[in-house]
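Hey, I was hoping to borrow your eyes for a little while. I'm sending you its amino acid sequence along with the backbone structure tokens. Take your time with it, there's no hurry, and the full record follows here.
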Amino acid sequence: MAKLEAASTAYLAQTMRVLSNWGCLLVSGDLGKANVMTIGWGLAGPLWGRTFFIVAVRPSRYTYMFIEKNGDFTVNVPSRDMEKIVDYCGSVSGRDHDKFKESGLTIVSSKKVTSPIIYECVVHFECKVEYATDVEPRGLPTDVITECYPHGDYHRLYFGEVLATYADEDAAEHLPT
């Protein structure tokens, strides 16, 4: 079992702050065809003696089919100057737009998974899906159903084991807060 890498530990707390305040960019697919979406919900840390990044993706999202097909994804932490890109990637669908091209993002090969990383981002987590489960309305608080699922489009939670974590050390010092 992979232990929590020093790089993972160093960036997890910062990444959780960025995720909850700004959002991160999730990518799944391959260099030939991939999609990027903004995520604002997720969890990361130790589970089952390994390091995991858990992300929530609705079946209606274009990224869903890529994760289902490939069984992996990357979480890419943007720098402060990428706020408009993060907003854009969360406001249009990859079915209708080439979000990489339209926002000036460059995808490059990952080290351990098929899904690429975003070159312009400052921290990268490469994740292999080890488990997935669907959010069930039974047992959810009524306000969560009302606020988060008014149309019943419940998320699938992907438990991605973090196989690699790395960063642009200079740029990582300037993560959004």
User: Anything to note?
Assistant: The radius of gyration is 15 Å. The CA atoms of residues 134 and 156 lie 4 Å apart.
